[in-house]
Design brief:
mainly alpha, 320 residues, two-stranded antiparallel sheet
């Protein structure tokens, strides 16, 4: 998994969340995920065609896959070199430094703050709530009513709880800093390239297909873990119902944490014309938004307990 000891990884994980709580996100010019986005934006403009192809565009698909692999290789290599540079240090010192490197791969404070900001903006006016939601989601927001704005914010909280918290921790525990960095690269590539048809004058139907599938694979287990953690925070959810609701979304992964959140809160979460999770649930209110954040905090606590337990077991095995 790593040249570093499980104790070092444990210290790094806890320190990364401390840094997230104390300071939030690094400045954009120092943020590795921003650097990933700049690479993806630069090369994406060069690989995605400006017109829809009549059939299967294998040239765009190949260019997208190669560009994805090139960026992923650079990210993993950089993370591996940085992690390896810490291997000769004291465990505690190495853990603190590794935690500082891990922190940009996590974004719980920012996610929570954005959802709270949407609710606060809605208290001012519907237009203010819509505009603030536009910072959080990529869908069209100016036609949404108040309930739909709130539903979208809660959906984003659930989906990004996996993307920005659970999945990076999952891959960090399995593969150290390179694992967490690779996941964030894949997730960022999917967010920028993983579209059907045209977006911003470029066609991503085939150019972004590899990025979308790679994110699906890397998110498959974490998304289901995120749903189970949210269920644990809610003191249990009916598994068959959760699985049935999760399958309503086109994504094989995002439906799991969103369905868990909908069932835990007893609310409906919809994307007009696409899906409706827990359709018989209540329309969400400000109290439901507050409860959603509490559930995510409880799920985060369970995640840390589970991750620390796994690293502790690994450390004990090393002692033997």
């Amino acid at each position: 998994m790593s040249e570093l000891s499980p104790w070092t990884l444990l210290i790094a994980l806890l320190f990364a969340f401390c840094l997230d709580r104390w300071f939030g996100e690094p400045a954009p010019r120092w943020h590795p995920v921003v650097w990933m986005g700049k690479y993806l934006g630069w090369i994406g403009a060069r690989i995605a065609p400006r017109e829809m192809a009549a059939g299967r565009d294998w040239r765009a698909f190949s260019a997208g896959a190669l560009a994805w692999y090139g960026g992923a290789a650079l990210v993993v290599l950089a993370a591996l070199l940085l992690q390896s540079a810490l291997s000769g240090l004291d465990e505690a010192v190495a853990g603190l430094l590794l935690g500082a490197l891990l922190k940009p791969m996590l974004a719980w404070r920012m996610l929570r703050g954005e959802v709270v900001a949407v609710e606060e903006a809605l208290a001012e006016s519907l237009d203010a709530g819509r505009r603030r939601l536009g910072w959080l989601v990529s869908r069209e927001v100016m036609q949404l009513d108040e309930g739909q704005v709130r539903e979208s914010a809660i959906e984003s909280l659930a989906e990004n709880f996996n993307d920005s918290v659970v999945a990076p921790v999952f891959w960090f525990v399995l593969a150290g800093l390179p694992g967490a960095a690779l996941y964030r690269f894949a997730n960022t590539a999917d967010a920028m390239w993983g579209y059907r048809g045209m977006r911003a004058g470029l066609c991503w139907e085939w150019a972004g297909k590899w990025a979308a599938r790679a994110d699906d694979v890397l998110s498959w287990l974490p998304a289901r873990l995120a749903a189970l953690l949210l269920a644990a925070g809610a003191r249990g959810l009916p598994w068959r119902r959760l699985r049935s609701e999760a399958r309503k979304t086109a994504s094989p992964n995002s439906g799991w944490p969103m369905a868990a959140m909908a069932l835990a809160l007893g609310v409906r979460l919809r994307k007009s014309g696409v899906y409706a999770l827990n359709p018989d649930g209540a329309a969400p209110t400000p109290a439901h938004t507050r409860r959603a954040i509490v559930l995510a905090v409880l799920a985060l606590a369970w995640l840390l307990v589970l991750a620390c337990a796994m690293l502790f077991v690994l450390a004990q095995e090393q002692l033997w």
